[in-house]
Specification:
By secondary structure, the chain is an all-beta fold. It has no helices and eleven strands. The strands form two sheets. Strands 2, 4, 5, 6, 9, 10 and 11 form a seven-stranded mixed sheet that branches. A four-stranded antiparallel sheet has the order 1-3-8-7, with no helix packed on it. The N and C termini lie far apart (about 40 Å).
Length: about 110
Amino acid sequence: QVQLVESGGGLVQPGGSLRLSCAASGTLNAMGWFRQAPGKERELVAVISSVGHTNYADSVKGRFTISRDNAKKTLYLQMNSLKLEDTAVYYCTAWGRSQYWGQGTQVTVSS
């Protein structure tokens, strides 16, 4: 059974930084982060393959960095230069025998 547990969300001012973590159990291939803002659909933020290939949404390119530590089975999302529109619940996801989701962590960017 795969479990994903996110941490690291919180309140930050515009221009600030946060680092999200996702602790995983089980055998996983690609992993990624999605986010969902109030009244909007869940959208892809970034994905990373099991060997480290990455892909980002245009809205976060150059500001966010996805990485993973396979030995620790942990996924990260370093978020810099945060904007008001980055406010959302951020979800960790992973693909193995199925697609798995974490419970989400709130990121609020506000002055």
